């Protein structure tokens, strides 16, 4: 069974990406799975080419350093020709209305004078990512369900019109792993592209910087360490992070910590300890470009081998070639 997950190089990998996704990919993923570094998706809004290339390499190094099976990791643009071709076939299978009704497109385009056409069409590219690999399951958060549904619709429509080529994928809503919130603004989730880095712990932040960011995390004036997501979002976020790093239950941890200073100190040390080996392995890989290139090329070759026949079938039954 093939499962496909992705991470977008829209910024440096942050603690939420790691605790909420990457760590699980390393623990539960199999060599059959596909982990895409979706650099093509990172181009749907203004981007800097050199930064995109550097972030893509960083993500590749982080995934491998975290223990994700190297043969299952693939940089999306290494298959840009295959994906470009399939995206075209799928755009010829998808209606404008279906793309325009995507909630993420509406949200991300709202109030902007100009948006890239790719912001509208990227769910079709995502369908191509999924269908090209013969994916059976796509583990997603609620916000991506609509996109996987589009991939299902397009697969069925294409198969029904031209002949059975694609596996119809299933969305699987992943059980709630850690949801990490911004340290400075706990009302929003921690994100790679947050406007202010003070509330974001990046995986490659040096330990002292990690400690400083956590010691400055926003709490409240109640002075009591309680697990209360609505009433004490900052404190609860720290408890959630501490829980994700120690494996202890957040409510139990709340009972064992008497003040905010000890909560922050415990959280800072737990995060530093959790990230240390991954950070060190990532830096070592980044310092070894030959090894990183080898891993990247092997991942691309594997993903390409798995998909070539499917693309050829899709082109043939469409009347091309
Ligand atoms: N704060 C978070 N807590 C838990 N999980 C998180 N993920 C992201 N942020 C958190 C999970 O990380 C995986 C890869 O994310 P993505 O690159 O596909 O997109 P994203 O969710 O939009 O990530 P960011 O960091 O928030 O990036 P930007 O700033 O570009 O929007 C996903 O499995 C995601 O759930």
TrEMBL record:
<keyword id="KW-0436">Ligase</keyword>
<dbReference type="GO" id="GO:0006436">
    <property type="term" value="P:tryptophanyl-tRNA aminoacylation"/>
</dbReference>
<comment type="similarity">
    <text>Belongs to the class-I aminoacyl-tRNA synthetase family.</text>
</comment>
<keyword id="KW-0030">Aminoacyl-tRNA synthetase</keyword>
<dbReference type="GO" id="GO:0005524">
    <property type="term" value="F:ATP binding"/>
</dbReference>
<keyword id="KW-0547">Nucleotide-binding</keyword>
<dbReference type="InterPro" id="IPR050203">
    <property type="entry name" value="Trp-tRNA_synthetase"/>
</dbReference>
<dbReference type="InterPro" id="IPR002305">
    <property type="entry name" value="aa-tRNA-synth_Ic"/>
</dbReference>
<protein>
    <recommendedName>
        <fullName>Tryptophan--tRNA ligase</fullName>
        <ecNumber>6.1.1.2</ecNumber>
    </recommendedName>
</protein>
<dbReference type="InterPro" id="IPR014729">
    <property type="entry name" value="Rossmann-like_a/b/a_fold"/>
</dbReference>
<keyword id="KW-0648">Protein biosynthesis</keyword>
<keyword id="KW-0067">ATP-binding</keyword>
<dbReference type="GO" id="GO:0005829">
    <property type="term" value="C:cytosol"/>
</dbReference>
<dbReference type="GO" id="GO:0004830">
    <property type="term" value="F:tryptophan-tRNA ligase activity"/>
</dbReference>
<dbReference type="Pfam" id="PF00579">
    <property type="entry name" value="tRNA-synt_1b"/>
</dbReference>
<dbReference type="InterPro" id="IPR002306">
    <property type="entry name" value="Trp-tRNA-ligase"/>
</dbReference>
